[in-house]
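Hi R.,

Here's the chain you asked about this morning:
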Amino acid sequence: KSYPVFSPTHRAIHPILEVRAAEGLQSEDVRSVHVRAAAGNLAPLTHTSPQTGSEATFSMQYAIAAALIDGHVSLSSSSDAAVQRPQIQEFMSRVTTDDAGIPTPGTRWSEVHVELSCGKRLSRRVDVLRGSLKSALSISELQVKVADCLNWGDSQLDPSRLVSDSLSLHQTSVRQWLSCALHTI
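And the predicted structure, written out as tokens:
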């Protein structure tokens, strides 16, 4: 799982992060964002204007706002304080969604349409979920994710070493690995 929010948001977060990086976008550059998704994919996203971290986990509006404004969606994005920031609250009103209509079992995709303040329009479609077997995270992306988890848990473990050691589990026993991990604190 690439992001610590409900999975139907993931196919929209990734293209927002790509567009943000490619265009150097800031929230003030964006007039609106519209997310269209395969039928039924948006149903679990019940909070359009979340006020708490728990609500934000089930909000496309929040996921898009956090990705665009912060440049990431991490565990710290799920705090009540992060959700209640005025800039986030204001931007969420610029995010709309719609369901593609007739359900096709097993179909999952999202289209993200961004309208810039200058009138330019950008669109991306995502069919393959980032972080899945078909689109695996790179080692550096895994290290960033592990670092986020360790930071959130206030751990002193070295994320690079933890990822490296985890990827070599086939060469050692879990008992040896845990012993080394616990002694590196």
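The longest helix spans residues 10-23.

Let me know if you need anything else.
M.
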